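__Protein archive entry__

___
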Amino acid sequence: MVQCFGLTLPRLECAIWKNFERSLRMNDWALLNPLSLTSILYTMSVPWAMLFVSLCRRDPYRKWSDVTTVMWYYGYVAIAGILMRLMVSILPAQDPALMRIDAALGFNTLSFAAAMRGYPVAMAMIAASYILLAPVIAVSWLLEQNLVQRRAILIGGYLTLVCYALVPAVGPGYYDWAKGVALHAAPFNCMPSMHIGFPLLLAYNARSKWLRVWLWAFVAIMLVATLALREHYLIDLIAAFPFSLGVQWIAARTELIYAKLRDPNLAQEGECPASPRRGAHGNREILTPHVAE
């Protein structure tokens, strides 16, 4: 297994985020820890990159859209962090139940992950891909600034917090199967898998063909990565598909309602405003901000 800082790559992200949590404590000197500095850089680099790109835009509307997206990002990260910490403190992990469901489906997550360890190069590649979810979301937004996509990501992110509370689980790699308890500080972010759900929402909303193909390829990589890295159970991946479809429907409907409130004439026409250029999706064209050209 490829190692970095003395850690296997599948566990590197976990170590980074654990040190980031420690660095938030005012009485802790973990900010001096290289892993803590790396975690802060990783967390901050995505919104910083978005704001840098925003400075290069000429259209003030597009600039403001980038800024509000970054604000929503930080708001979600803060709320999700607080709620996940609260869930870990009061809820028991239900990983054995998810493992039994996988067994009923004829799949053993731990055996699959063990088999994948025989391919160290592939494991290194999918581990690197796994931690690129946030940059992929950012690039998708910067390329198309799709309002429905942004709304879907936010709705999906907040609804998963409800799901995590209803089915608290840490994933097969963060559960001590000998002792029957979750590892210390492991978050409940397993069911459904949003490493599948978020890429699905990006792919649903991508307008350009090349971006859509690239995002579906990323979904395929995540399907393997989440299992090979022991981050999720098979049932988590299966649940992500209907969950993302439901979120997409909610996002599209709420955007349509909001558009009709802004322009009452749309209620009579029965259409939603889109950019002047309608793509190959016809009536299924994703809403975009109407930007003067």
Summary: The first helix runs from residue 9 to 23. The chain has one domain: 3-266.
